[in-house]
Amino acid sequence: MNALSLAGQVALVTGAGHGIGRASAMALAEAGALVVASDRDFARAGETEQMIKSAGYEAVAAVADVTDEGAMAAVVEHTVRSYGRLDILHANAGVLMAGTALSQTLDEWDKTFMVNVRGTFLTVRAVLPQMISQKSGAIVITASVSGLIGEPDLVAYNSSKGALVNLTRQLAVEYAEHGIRVNGVCPGWIETGFNDPVLGHLDPTQLDQLVDRQVPLGRQGTPEDIAPAVVFLASDGARYITGQLLPIDGGLTSM
Q1: What are the pLDDT digits (tens) for 59-85?
Q2: Which listed residue, 88, 111, 130, 253, has the most CB atoms within 10 A of its CB?
Q3: Residues acting as catalytic residues
Q4: Cα 163–195–165 angle (5° rounding)?
Q5: Environment class of residue 106 by beta-carbon count within 10 Å: exposed (0-12), middle (13-18) or buried (19+)?
């Protein structure tokens, strides 16, 4: 049997309306999972659903703001009621706002932690009871290389992603006895527009020069570079892996 097959499993992806979330939703569906593509923007979630269905796979769109405990609980409840189980969570929704310890506003700091940390926590907390009752589950959290290293002008984002790094480890230790694995992916510079608050002021030549200096593989990543790792960590191929953070960064953190 293919250890990477997700046939018969149900996966929930947050922030599935674009970028890494959309790519991982597609990849999970291609591996055989029925995907619930959740996003705060229902139109974008619907686009992801249609892309997956057009490729011949199974998906359904859902709308929820990850910072809303009731909304996340409702999405999980509807998923379980409709499909009988929930095997995989890719907790991916996040925001990035540039700033230093002196320039970052408190509103930006609070919003960053509200979405990145509280949102991930509420999403995980919503799925845990079902996974505990099943005695199985795989959770993949989108952290970042920004949670592993220090970077200028990213005080709130670095801090929030550092929190997700240790949240991943804590959850892995806490829920291993229930058959639940928790791992994280740590993307580097991914070409989705997500990094525009930091890199958007650079013209293409300046950006290429920066990438050449800091990324050994010499290019930014794509969402499709991240998605296969999400599938692997969700699959039985990673059945003895938990509490780990996988950098997917073209070698950036090795410099």
Answers
A1: 999 999 999 999 999 999 999 999 999
A2: 88
A3: 157
A4: 15
A5: exposed
